[in-house]
Amino acid sequence: MELRHASGLELWLRRARVATFAARRFARWATEDGFAAPARTTPPVPSGTTVAHVVRAPLARRGADPRLEAGKRHNVRLAATAFHGVVLTPDRPLSFWRALGPATEARGFAWGMELRSGCAVPAVGGGLCLLSNALFAIAVELGWSVLERHGHSMALGDPAALDATVAFPHVDLRIAPRTGRAILDVSVRGDVLIVAACHDAPRLRVELERDQRDDGHTRDTRIRRRVWREHELVENAFVVDDHQHIPAALRTCLDCGESACRARVEIPDVTTDVTTDVTTD
Fold first, then answer.
1. What is the C-alpha R_g of the chain?
2. Cβ of 20: how many Cβ atoms within 10 Å?
């Protein structure tokens, strides 16, 4: 495939669009109740609340660059502390970025890998989609309201997995229980991310219907979800409707050999020590 270089005007327009979207999102944070800062509680979980669902996600990815892998593990451990103990209600949904804030070096985040423009590129805070994926899976399996979710542009990992990409601040994941109060229990134990939801309302019945088509180059995935409260059907809608590119091989800016592609990122130093991970287990 011929490499296409972005012109200066294209880069400027792209940055202007991102800045516009970011400004709109910050305005919504300031004016809409659905973007309120999260409330938190301190474990143990209050009486009357039971563990409704648990998602376990391995942090290690086979064949990935070890430098970016170390950064990803560090980033997920650090971010997990921002979600542990967060309280959700129908009127106070979870916004991924409202809970976490910007993933910057000043806040302790390291270089990891993220998907951008169909490429795997190094980025500060890279790897946080493991956390957004797990939170989205919790919401889907429990029949929660999915207020905002964006799919990845590239098909990676388990085709059956539920995924949700995030990019600060305007590409967000927002979820909320339909009734009652839910509390997140988020930790990293060894090399496994564990996200659990504790809920004080009866569990809803959920049925997922998956339609996936894969031609070796692209993958189209549609997942219809039906949610029942006792005998009442409260939702019958698609929670996933994605068109994704399937890469021939996963490459990053550290090893792809290209020097002028649109998504290329130059890393000043990826050997930064990230061994001082935050312990969350």
1. 19
2. 11
Of 41, 167, 45, give the one whose Cα is nearest residue 100: 167
Two tokens, residue 199: 């809920």
- Local structure of residue 219 (DSSP, 8 states): E
Residue 132: both structure tokens together: 């957004």
Domain boundary assignment for the chain: 8-203
Q: Which residues share a beta bridge with 251?
A: none
111 and 67 Cβ atoms separated by less than 8 Å? yes
Q: What is the mean pLDDT for each group of 10 consecutive residues in the chain (281 residues)?
A: 57 84 89 83 70 91 82 97 95 96 97 77 92 97 97 82 93 97 94 94 96 92 97 97 83 61 56 44 40
In the chain, where do the E strands start and end?
Answer: 39-40, 50-58, 86-88, 94-95, 111-116, 119-124, 145-148, 174-176, 182-189, 192-199, 205-214, 218-229, 232-245
- Looking at residue 105, the DSSP 8-state letter turns out to be G
The answer to pTM > 0.90 is no
Instruction: Calculate the CA dihedral of residues 144, 183, 75, 32 and round it to 10 degrees.
Output: 60
How far apart, in whole angstroms, are the C-alpha atoms of residue 185 and residue 162?
19
